[in-house]
Amino acid sequence: MSMSSLPLPSSFRHALESAFTGELRPGLRPIEGTKPLTLEALFCPVLLYYIALLLLPPPPPQTVASVHISTLRNVLAATAAYLFLRLPLAYHVPQSIGLTYQLGLVGIYGGLRVLDAFFVSLYGFGHIPRRVRYSHHLRPETPRGESAPRPWADGGSNGMLKDPTKPPAGSQSKGDAHSTALEKQNDILLKPTRPKPQRMVSQSDLLENMTSQSYTDLLNKDDGYMTMMTKLVNGPKPIPVIETAHTEDGWPHGFADRASWALELELSMRGVGFTWTTADIRHTTKTWLPTVQNRLHSIVVHVGPVLVLAWAVIRYLYVRRLAPMTAGSSFSESPFDELSLPEQYLLTTALGAFLMAAFSLGHSMFAIICSPLAPNPISFFPPLYTTRVWDITSARGFWSYGWHRLFARLFLVWGVWPGEWVERKLTGKSPDQPADVGKVLGGFLSSAVVHSFSVRGTLAGSWTDAAGEAKFFALNGIAILVEDLVIRAVRSSRKSRQQKESRNFARGWTKGGLVREMAFM
Questions:
Q1: What is the chain's mean pLDDT, rounded?
Q2: Which residues does 373 contact at the CB level (< 8 Å), separation at least 6?
Q3: What is the DSSP string of 420-446?
């Protein structure tokens, strides 16, 4: 049976055919001279990075402490970084425009990550990431905006230059650094099923923190239509916990533990479970542990419908409006600009919703797949988004609370820190003084370079055509700075105006004689 006879959309049939023929996906314009991606080119830098990570922690065993091993490690790391960065410059994925774009992200992220781990952190800060052991204790209520500083939350001196914290009183660090098992009374928190509440709680608390069984029981007992629909939409809640963390007593012990340590660090984009983690999107020690039921419900009820609706809007606008513009002799270099303003906003909203939902889908699927590995750190997936988009009121709020932090470490090391250094050099600020302008501009400029570099691989290597992505992220950084200036000006004006206007109350009462009467005069 030929591919053309399969009952599939034409785009799917073409993807299957090109997987065997190497034919280019329509619309893909790879960089001239690049070749179709091979498995060897993809896995070689990953394996070299992993082998180098095996040699990164200090002894034991003593064999890794020699100069020869250090030299070998650095050669492997430098080679891996080179091969990562070379990926989008030498290869493309003929079957997909999106995968070619992702290849650019993987290449630049992987290369800079390797340079960070083996050269910037190691030789610049003398820091080798330690494991972090998390403890989770049940709490009865959902937090109301309470926050507390979290250790290693800045990815820098707070975690790199200070000694590891001591375990809580009454507990001792395990001799095996690979052991991340919690105390027996907390083990149940990391299992797929939810535990029963430890004490009697009110119905309002129960609705907020219900278990899967209590959720089903309440649904069966309550006949109210709106109540039933609300519960169906909300679904089982994640487990409310208080999270505490402390580093282990040292680095990996033995080869098996070292192999596990290297795998965990290589897979941890956000640095979760290690002392080089970046600022947590939760910004609080009060958090939630997602359960399998909760993630399944999120996929079916929330993420799935958003993906389908956003995809339908994107397809409709492309088929009805964009496709005719890109065909024939009247081809437009920028078909998006030919759309009406409402259509541009509609397409932008649909693309944003699709992207956020796709990230959430991937996060939930991996959380479900890895849940049987608990309490291994690989099964620990902190929330990706914790603030609803419609609850965000500023550009800074969106990028700080409403977006994922998968690339935060990359932007911190290669954008935020250089930006802060430049601002301090230009203004004469001391290291203890904040350098927010350099921090914001550095972070967003590095993001602009990363994303434009990636999309360039689908546009025949044209930096001009890739400028749209660069402008978006760079302008977001400027928008945050302008937004902060406006907020400060409004607050300053409001404060001075309140000082004057607050006296109008007493002025009116004095003029009206009320003060005289109150004084019995």
A1: 79
A2: 379
A3: HHHHHHHH---TTS--HHHHHHHHHHH
Instruction: Count up the domains in the chain and report the number.
Output: 2
Tell me the pairing of strands 35-36 and 91-92.
parallel
Instruction: Count other C-beta atoms under 10 Å from residue 148's C-beta.
Output: 9
Residue 283 lies in a domain: no
Amino acid at position 206, single letter? L
> 94, 125, 156 — which closes off a domain?
125
Q: Which helix (H) or strand (E) holds 16?
A: helix 10-21
**Overall average pLDDT of the 133-142 stretch:** 72
Answer yes or no: is 19 within a domain: yes
Dist. CA 181–CA 251, nearest whole Å: 16
Helix axes 436-456, 467-511, angle to 10 degrees: 150
DSSP class of 50: H
What Rg value do the Cα atoms of the chain yield, rounded?
27
CA distance 180 to 261: 12
Q: What is the pLDDT of residues 382-405, one digit of tens each?
A: 778 878 888 898 999 899 888 888
Q: Does residue 415 contact residue 446 with C-beta atoms inside 8 Å?
A: yes
Residue 293 lies in a domain: no
Q: Could you report the per-residue pLDDT of 497-506, keeping only the tens digit for each?
A: 666 666 777 8
Confidence of residue 292 (pLDDT cuts 50, 70, 90): confident
Range of the domain at 87: 10-125
Q: What is residue 184's predicted lDDT score, i.e. its pLDDT?
A: 45
Of 125, 148, 176, which residue is a domain's last?
125
**Sign (positive or negative) of CA dihedral 188, 191, 196, 197:** positive
Does residue 256 fall inside a structural domain? no
**Peptide bond before 61: cis, by omega within 30 degrees of 0?**
yes
Token pair for residue 98? 């999106």
